Amino acid sequence: MNTSVGIVYAQRAIFDTPLTFRSGAVLPRYELVYETYGTLNADKSNAILVCHALSGHHHVAGHYADAPENVGWWDNMIGPGRPVDTDKFFVIGLNNLGGCHGSTGPSSINPETGKPYGASFPVVTVEDWVESQARLADLLGITQFAAVMGGSLGGMQAMQWSLSHPERVRHVLAIATAPHLTAENIAFNDVARNAILTDPDFHGGDFYQHGVVPTRGLRLARMLGHITYLSDDAMADKFGRSLRAGKLGYNYGIEFEIESYLRYQGDKFAAYFDANTYLLMTKALDYFDPAREFKGSLDKAFAVSRADFLVLSFTTDWRFSPDRSREIVQTLLHNHLNVSYAEIASTHGHDSFLMEHEHYHEVMRVYLDRIAKEFSA
Amino acid sequence: MSAHDPAELAAARPDFAAIAAWIPEGASVLDLGCGDGSLLRHLKETRKVRGYGVEISDENIVACIRNGVNVIQGDLDSGLSGFETLAFDYVILSQTLQATRHTEALVREILRVGSAGIVSFPNFGHWKARLNVLRGHMPVSEELPYQWYDTPNVHLCTLHDFEDFCTKCQVQILERRVMTDGIEVNLLPNLLGSMAVYRFKRAG
Q1: Could you give the C-alpha distances from A347 to A238, A335, B35, in angstroms and in order?
Q2: In B, what residues contact A, Cβ < 8 A?
Q3: Which of these, A96, A12, A92, A105, lies nearest to A55 by C-alpha position?
Q4: pLDDT in tens, A218-272
Q5: What is the DSSP string of A242-279?
Q6: What's the pTM value of the predicted model, to 2 decimals?
Q7: Which CATH class is domain B6-202?
Q8: Are residues B65 and A343, on separate chains, in Cβ contact within 8 Å?
Q9: ipTM entry
Q10: E strand or H helix that includes residue A339
Q11: Annotated domain spans of chain B
């Protein structure tokens, strides 16, 4: 059997203990929305935390009763009989702090002012997210995760779990990720941020009060990001040089299919995503660098880790290339940690980690079956 | 082999027992071209090694994970640059030497990354192979099951060839075991042995 988890619903956890951020900022009270799939076993040893990437959220699998078309973003990976088998595992997905899907974020009302946080919402780091996630785990009574998993920025959180709370995670599944962003990668993020920051409708982050949204900036940011998540081959295959009208128009309208596609993606994204959340997520990506506190030594940063790792990369992913995953693998080897690494041949670039792919899913399934044997034995 | 039965394993891969006998308990081991991870699993269970395998094939990556061993996908012919100098007690190349392209460079890398190396390979000097060639055909046998047009084996050698190679590359052979059908061969090994296992280190 290989099916969806079916109808799911979101839950909300309220935290009244102040959270101090890496930046020094303090959030006295915050909320996290999350979903769970499967059943937590008696000794609470079968929990898996799924961390989301830049534009992700808590709706990871299944669909809502009143919105069957709203399917979770990693539905092909999670469900009964799927690689993350909900007949065996208890899976948690949450919307990260600073997000725009229900957890406390820049678009939430600050109870102290009665207005949206906007520009005053703290810059959040991967470490801060892990702390907030650990509190959610406490609330659910989970002292140790069977696994923490994620792709891209989600993979960074999964790795950080083994550094911040080595005793609380048995396996880390780090997919299409990196030990830190390269200069080129930060540069892409900076251009995306600049598109938002320079949009006249941004109003320094407090656009909510002006009744406007920096749609143009958000759209450009997403268009740029989207290009970097695809591969040259995938774009060539899907769009090539196809023209919408079948002939050149000698104007600056939307002529090539790729232009039409990117604008559609940009518009769709700008219609629901919060500009401040976008800024915050890209900054968290840029800041992630566990080696920083260890004079650039990633090996020393991982010395505390006790987890077993599965590291996966995709051949056509140039935003988080296989070379970056190999850096992670080397550090794990140097620390004598258990690690398996697979380089998946896929044409979909960085987006590959979200796609249904037979070999990729088989690797995940076999590894997760191994994890399941540890607690069912 | 799906079931991990020690007797079945010993019959299928006689070099495994010889290799395991040389590996001290708790050693760190890198198995290059580790296949489905059977040897690593065997060493993990019988010698409690801290082991890692390197494998290129997708199918074998899945098999290794299923076997519960660490595996890193990579191409041996692009070197072992990801591994630190003297990171392992033993680096093993089991039935893989003959399929490597840059064999000399790889043997040097084995002795950079490991304190000692172990290789096993089919002996091209075995009488059956010689007879095949005398009859005008490339050898096809249990150890060399491929036809000339589909073989992955690009660097086949005899025991003499390998030992000459070690002298040239300043590799000191510590021990050698030669076998046919899993039985030790001591008489005329280069003629009567179908498979050889060597343990070696850097000379000097």
Answers
A1: 11, 32, 26
A2: 28, 50, 52, 58, 61-62, 64-66, 68, 70-74, 82-84, 87
A3: A96
A4: 999 999 999 999 999 999 999 999 999 999 999 999 999 999 999 999 999 999 9
A5: -BSSSS--SSSSS-BHHHHHHHHHHHHHHHHS-HHHHH
A6: 0.95
A7: alpha beta
A8: no
A9: 0.94
A10: strand A339-344
A11: 6-202
